[in-house]
Amino acid sequence: MAKKSAAPSQDGRRPTSLFIFSETNPIRRYTKFIIEWPPFETAVLMTIIANCVVLALEEHLPEGDKTMLAIKLEATETVFLCIFCVEASLKIMALGFVLHKGAYLRNIWNIMDFIVVVTGLVTILADERLTAGVDFRTLRAIRVLRPLKLVNGIPSLQVVLKSIIKAMAPLLQIGMLVLFAIVIFAIIGLEFYFGALHKTCYDLKDFSKFKTEGDSPTPCDMSNAWGGYRCNESVSMCLEGWVGPNYGITSFDNIGFAMLTVFQCITMEGWTSILYWTNDAIGSKFNVIYFVPLIILGSFFMLNLVLGVLSGEFAKERERVENRQAFLKLRRQQQLERELNGYVEWICKAEEVILAEERTTEEEKMHIMEARRKAAAKRKKLKNLGKSKSTDTEEEDNDGEEDALYMPKKKSGLAKASYLKSKIKNQGACAGFWRAEKTFRFAIRKAVKTQFFYWFVIVLVFLNTVCVAVEHYNQPDWLAQFLYYTEFVFLGLFISEMLIKMYALGPRIYFESAFNRFDCVVISGSIFEVVWSTIKPESSFGLSVLRALRLLRIFKVTTYWSSLRNLVISLLSSMRSIISLLFLLFLFILIFALLGMQLFGGEWNFKDGTPPANFNSFAVALLTVFQILTGEDWNEVMYNGIKSQGGHDNGGMIYCLYFIVLVVFGNYTLLNVFLAIAVDNLANAQELTAAEEEQEEEDKEKMAAELEKEIGALHVADGAPTVEICPPSPHAPVRNHSSDNRPSLQAMKGDTVDEEEATGPKPMLPYSSMFILSSTNPIRCAAHWVVNLRYFDFFIMFVISLSSIALAAEDPVVEQSNRNKILNMFDYAFTGVFTVEMILKVIDMGLILHPGSYLREVWNVMDATVVICALFSFIFNQTGSSTGQNLSTIKSLRVLRVLRPLKTIKRVPKLKAVFDCVVNSLKNVVNILIVYMLFQFIFAVIAVQLFNGKFFYCTDNSKVLEQECQGEYFVYTDDNQPPEVHERKWNKQDFHYDDVMMAMLTLFAVQTGEGWPTVLQNSMAATSEDNGPKPHYRIEMSLFYIVYFIVFPFFFVNIFVALIIITFQEQGEAELQDGELDKNQKSCIDFVIQARPLERYMPKDRKSCKYKMWKIAVSTPFEYFIMVLIILNTLLLMVKNYPQSDSEEKVVRNLNNVFTLLFAIECALKVVAFGVRNFCKDRWNTFDLITVLGSIVDAIATETQMTSSINLGFLRLFRAARLIKLLRQGYTIRILLWTFVQSFKALPYVCLLIAMLFFIYAIIGMQVFGNMGFDPDSDMNRHNNFQSFFSSVLLLFRCATGESWQSIMLACIKGRPCDPRAIPENDPHKVCGSDFAYAYFVSFIFFCSFLMLNLFVAVIMDNFDYLTRDSSILGAHHLDEFHRIWAEYDPNATGRIEYTEMYDMLRNMEPPLGFGNKCPYRLAHKKLIRMNMPIDEEGKVQFTTTLFALIRENLSIKMRPADEMNQADAELRKTITKLWPLQAKKLLDLLVPPREQLGAGKLTVGKIYAGLLILENWKTTRFGQIAPENQPKASLLERIMGIARPTNPRAAAEPSGPPPPPPAADDDDELCDSDDRQSGDLIGSRRSSIASLVTQLQGGFRPGSFRSRSPSPRAYHSPNSSFRRRVRPQSPYQDRSPSPAASFQRSLPGKDHCDWALPHRHRRLPNERAASISPERRRRTNGYGAGSLDQQSRSPSPPPRRTGNSFPTLPSRRSGGRRLPPTPSRPSTLDPAEFPHVARAAGYRPPPGAAPFNFPKVNASPTHTGRRMPAPGVPPVRRPPLPPTYAAEPQPPLSFEEAVAMGRGTRQLPSPVVPNGYRPGGGGAGVARPAGRRLPQPAGDSEDEDWC
Q1: pLDDT of residue 1316
Q2: Least confident of 259-268, 276-285, 1600-1609
Q3: Residue 1645 has pLDDT above 90, yes or no
Q4: 1392-1401 CB burial, b ≥16 within 10 A, e <16
Q5: What is the CB neighbour count within 10 angstroms for residue 320?
């Protein structure tokens, strides 16, 4: 609540409450005191709870009737409302109403309270006459929000609530994506199934009646399409007029119904019924293509994203809370320690003073000394005690641990009573007895700790469990008696065990073990149960079965114990979160149950009675909401809700929102938090286990090392010769071996790489094959040659594929059909091929006895089994045995052929890797699986005790006993028809609990969430053994299912899923362990390897019509116009509504033609503007073209009424998919879509494995259940069967989505009718089906739902982890931005841009990808130095190299200090070659440039920007600013050039003389970061690098060569041009000269000067330049040069380049950037003649009258602007010459180290004088300044460095 007082207003007074009560008003003061008084808050919460109880006690009856209790309770509503009114009034008076900060309505909880109070007042005070017909139920329903206030009072809910709230932002994005998918599918459904579900079969005798197939009417097809349902024309007729399935709610009649139907399909409830209805209505050709992708995309993908987001947010939030708690704990501990230490210190000082005083007696001194000694001893004991306690985990039987615990505690004598007792025991006559008792107790303790006792107890527990498990319905009397007595025997034994342990260990130590406490609870429960069963013999709770949990102790002797214990520890640590979540879930269920009672209570009264799931009473409403939460049959409940409120056409549809909100927030949000917690805990547990294993390894190694040391010491001591007595510790090699053997994706991939690289055939094994054929035997050699042929494996794969197709093509119904006979012949051929393959391999490899032989590999064993079984089946066939036994044997042997496709796994390496991953997951799951089975067994036994023999029923509901259930009874079907006569039958429910096996099957079905509401209703209706049901007889039995659901589906299954997810992720990480790359780094490098520059087309001729059309096509208004068209077109597709009149249909059709025409014009415009080839390069354009052509064909077909077998309307539906283009406008959604595609790319092998699983199960299903007959009332019908391969796969897909799989299983068990075609003439009474169905379906559900489909979840969580990751970390999803922005600089996709443009591009990209325009230039330069891409002859950098360098620098992929970078590069090259062997061959030198491209004589980005930083640092020193008096000074350029004076002017200069010593290590120069290799590189090879700069200055590398650029719409000058060249007025356009000397001379400017910092003003380009700027560029021009066209064009057809001066201009940024004030320009000239040694070295002879060098002054801005040169013919602006003081005299050049050392003389500050790029060859080396003027010193940019 808003307890803090409001802030004072501007005039100093605090705001008044309601404009009446000031802050000092006594009434306001008292009300404030009351609302802040804790009992007030408690009273309000208690009132809310009481109100909930009152609401819950209300029972809703039909027609608004009320019970007496309800009438009495209604009177309390006024009381509650008064209390809430008083609370609201007090708070409003105390806090104020709304206008100021801290007021009542500024708090969200108060807003909710206020709404509740106001609506309550409205419902009570409203006059009935005025409000006749107004329904206040909805307003009353708002009362149920009151319990939400409880959340505010419980702090432990914070983690769960906050993680859900924080996940809302990414969840909203996913919600958008899901909504978008729903809209698309709804529009497609609207187009295909519009009004299709309103036709059904009407009775010919009475057209008002339907002819049903089974229970309900079926849609029929009037157009005779293939697969449609046709009415029996003799009795019925297909007519339109039916309201439709599910009371007309399930339909595609308008966009609302369609979206609801699609949403229902996405939740995987009832989607198969809709599929079957559409098959019946319009034929079954294409419906599967609509529904299966809908399930895969909607359910398996998009809704699993919710899980990924929640799990990430939960982990982050929990970590944050844990860190916070740890910090607070540490702070509190430190504070306590500080205070305690101060206190102890004070006491010690006092003691010292007392001891030093003379008046202190000796006795007192002794007393103090004794106290100190005792305290020290006590501390020591406590320390030891702590140690011994930490070793005792939770078992009492670890040898010696209890002694360590027991003895110190016994001796410590902390408790006075035990001390006295021991005194008495040790004295007097009883001393001998107590001594004997102690000895006896020690003996018993020793016996209790023996292995024999441990296993004896385990065996007892096992026998007890077996006795409990054999109990079943209708068991013989002797067994019942035996079990009755054994229960007492076991109970006695376990009580004895407990008492013996308690006596031996002592109660305290006994209860320290968690297992012992559990034992005690179970035994107490068993005693209670025995007493209860004597009082009430009929009932039993089955508590004794909990003893079976003691079997978990067996884990102690296995290796799994530690991992299991860590999981339990981790779960217990997050128990608070789990309990909070359960509480939140309960609150959620409570609110929705109360809301449901208010909305639907007493309303569900239908012809066939009230459905079992209803909202009439509180308990049933809770169960109904819980059922909807589990997602089972929620759609049926929704249909009832809508029907009860007026149906689909009378305002009932609005109530579907209640159910949708419940499903979305309950099922997909809250229940997914359970899985999030499970994933989190498993990750924690695995970390704990790994840490423990590491610790064990370390301890072993330490022990081994100590042992070796001791032995070594012994040898030395004895002086004996050293002999290896103890070999080196075997642990290390063993460990390595085991880690190598661990199956991982990398292991698999590594093997394949080695195999691929190994040239030549595999060598033959050196052993003799089958003791006959030696390795030189010609037959064996021939076999070896054949087996190792290049195409042998391909041939076998091909035969496997053909064999699989033949299996799928078989006819399972008519076994002797012609098709089967032909396929049988093929089968002989296939088996022959596989037999020959097996024989050849056995000859080559040997059979089994030696390593590497045939049967030593599992895959070969499988091959051999399949081949031998096929051969046996042929032999049986040929011998002509026709007995039934032989036929079934042949069939079972032939079924093994389905394993053939598994042979492909071994031959496809990546598939084998995924398969190994699944197998590895299963290995990890084993321990959880055992615990899971044990818990399942315990629940099954409890269920047998509770419901044994109580699941019988009579078909006549009025009879409850078997004796009564005889004869016949009437069933009334219709009001006008006479009743039908049915026979009474006494049946058992399909799922029951009569024995443990059936109980486990029932619970497995319940746990998958399928059909459990029926089992729940049966359990609540169960009365007593052999009696029929009574509805809601024992509603408390539902608690059993709620507990079961929390333990199993919410918990165990989630841990199971989490384990698979974590195993999958670990496999992926194991692949990268050797390469030292993490997953994110690998995905980024993957992106770089596949990335290619995008091409942007632009017509060359600016004056052509094509250019104008192109300009329109790429303009923003045109794009927005098309977007509006797309939205309008989508809305048009949505406006359909059934029934539709002819005029409406005509309008829609004409509008559709208009849109088709507009889109056709758009497409034609683009084709003309871009040209066909360039148009088709963009996939979106191709997609557009297809949709336009399709729309045109469709429009023609519609207008001409052309009949076609294909509905061409689907082509126009692609237009709706253009909505994706709208989504591409949002950055986050674009990333989401990109990742979506990436996760699809990651799935092919997972999908292949799932397809293989489906194939195998489909073939087995065809062979075993393919001959069964159809029954419309069962789940084995014409839609759902195994009679063809396609229908088998569809049936299995249905089972995988969990759609009534248990009903299909029951329809396939033994004793079902056969298909008439499958019944042989000699056996007319043959029955079909098999009890194998139980194993078949349960195993399929286990493998598919729990394993395979969870790989989907794992892949999605793996790919979408960035949603919850820190957004500042660069990920692969950011890199697409680089693609797009590079294309603006390099529209022709040459893959190269100038390095200066690269700098500008990186500034234009926002972090984490680029630098961002707020990044300080110094930091940007340092980053570029680290990136260090090579620059080619034209001064350009490469696309792939730049992107990789950017990623490498961002993610620190093997970035090390400068001196280690060569080694790091080599390692990285090795890693890339290993992980990407094929791509590395082409791209390795681009990704990691070799030393030759970076070393001496080569120019790189790093060297240029390092040079700039050196220059700038030198300028900031006092040497760079103060000129020495009376002594001319050489510039830095002269000194640098002096270092690298070349001997041959045309050759690359080499350093002469020995290299100078390296700079001191402790200098803190800001040249570069400590880990920059490039700066080190620069210093290490300083002479050669700078020499190369000079050489390039002289000759081949001249600044002019930088000027050739790729044409681009983003046109501006290079910001870093350091040279100006003279413009010859006679020749404005001039080509480059090939002569190095000439180019050098031409690069020397004339008398005109260039400023270091030029004003931020631009002049316009000449007209021809202006024309070349693209509309794209003009749109983007803002910031510095908004609206100006002064940037030089890089268009595809530029005018000839000017060889005039190059002027730096500031590129316009997309975000405007910072505007910096212009720096005053100061001219400076340097004459080359002043440096004779440099001039001579460069081969330079100044021409007569040559002007001095001009050096531009560096600007503080990272990108500096330039002033335009005057046009040709205009004289240049002259600057005054330098004062004579600055005339330089010759001076010996400084060495590089001296220059750097001089630069370190003062504190370096960043200078305002650095350009954002630097051209080698002059400018900026030494800048002269007028005397007496100092450069301004700007503040350091250290705090700015965070901007990047």
Answers
A1: 87
A2: 1600-1609
A3: no
A4: bbbbbbbbbb
A5: 14
| pLDDT value of residue 127 | 62
> Who contacts 1528 (Cβ-Cβ below 8 Å, separation ≥6)?
1783, 1784, 1785, 1787
Interval 1301-1339: pLDDT, tens:
999 999 999 888 888 888 877 777 788 888 899 999 999
Q: In Å, how far from its chain's centre is CA 177?
A: 16
| 1348-1373: pLDDT as tens digits | 777 777 777 777 777 777 778 888 88
Mean pLDDT of the chain: 75
CA distance 1504 to 676: 51
Look-up: residue for tokens 């791509």? 1479
Spatial separation of the C-alpha atoms in residues 526 and 487, rounded to whole Å: 9
Of 1367, 1374, 1353, 1361, the residue nearest 313 (C-alpha): 1361
- Cα radius of gyration rounded to whole Å, the chain: 43
Distances (CA, A) of 436 to 432, 433, 442, 443: 6, 5, 10, 11
SS3 call for 69? helix
Task: Tell me the Ramachandran region of residue 203: left when phi exceeds 0, alpha when psi lies from -120 to 50, beta otherwise.
Answer: beta
SS3 987: strand
DSSP summary character for residue 604: -
Residues forming beta bridges with residue 769, ordered by sequence position:
773
CA distances for 438 relative to 69, 503, 1694, angstroms: 67, 11, 106
The two structure tokens encoding residue 1748: 């001095």
Give, in order, the Cα–Cα distances in Å from 1157 to each of 1131, 1181, 1195: 17, 16, 10
In this predicted model, what pLDDT tens digit does every residue of 1568-1606 receive, in sequence order? 343 444 444 443 433 344 444 434 434 444 334 444 444
DSSP output for 156-170: GGHHHHHHHHHTHHH
The CA-based dihedral angle spanning residues 1622, 1627, 1631, 1632, taken in that order and rounded to the nearest 10 degrees: -20
Other CB atoms within 10 Å distance of the CB of residue 1726:
23
What are the DSSP E strand ranges found in 1404-1548? 1436-1438
Residue 1691 in this model has a pLDDT that exceeds 60: no
Q: What is the C-alpha separation between 553 and 572, in angstroms, rounded?
A: 19
Q: Compute the distance between CA of residue 1460 and CA of residue 1439 in angstroms, rounded to an integer.
A: 26
What is the pLDDT at residue 1735? 40
- 1256-1278 exposure pattern, b = at least 16 Cβ within 10 A, e = fewer: bbbbbbbbbbbbbbeeeebbbbb
**In this model, does residue 1420 exceed pLDDT 90?**
yes
pLDDT value, residue 7: 43
Instruction: Write out the DSSP string of 492-514.
Output: HHHHHHHHHHHHHH-HHHHHHSH
Residue 1560 burial by CB count (10 A; 0-12/13-18/19+): exposed, middle or buried?
exposed
Q: Taking Cα atoms as reference points, which of 622, 654, 580 lies closest to residue 155?
A: 580
Q: What angle do CA 1800, 1806, 1810 make, to 5 degrees?
A: 110
Let me know: does 1435 contact 1618? Beta carbons within 8 Å: no
CA dihedral 634, 640, 643, 648 (to 10 degrees): 10
Q: How far is CA 1618 from CA 484, 1394, 1702, 1756, 1766, in A?
A: 102, 15, 8, 15, 18
Of 807, 822, 978, 816, nearest in space to 887 by CA: 816
Tens digit of each residue's pLDDT (9 = 90 or more) over 753-768: 333 334 456 788 888 8
Alpha-carbon distance 867 to 862, whole Å? 9
Bridge-based pairing of strands 1436-1438 and 1392-1394 is antiparallel
Beta strands 952-954 and 986-988 are: antiparallel
Is pLDDT at 259 greater than 90 in this prediction? yes
CB 1016 within 8 A of CB 1058: no
C-beta neighbour count of 1802 within 10 angstroms: 13
Which residue type is seen at 525?
G
Q: Cβ–Cβ contacts within 10 Å for residue 561, how many?
A: 17
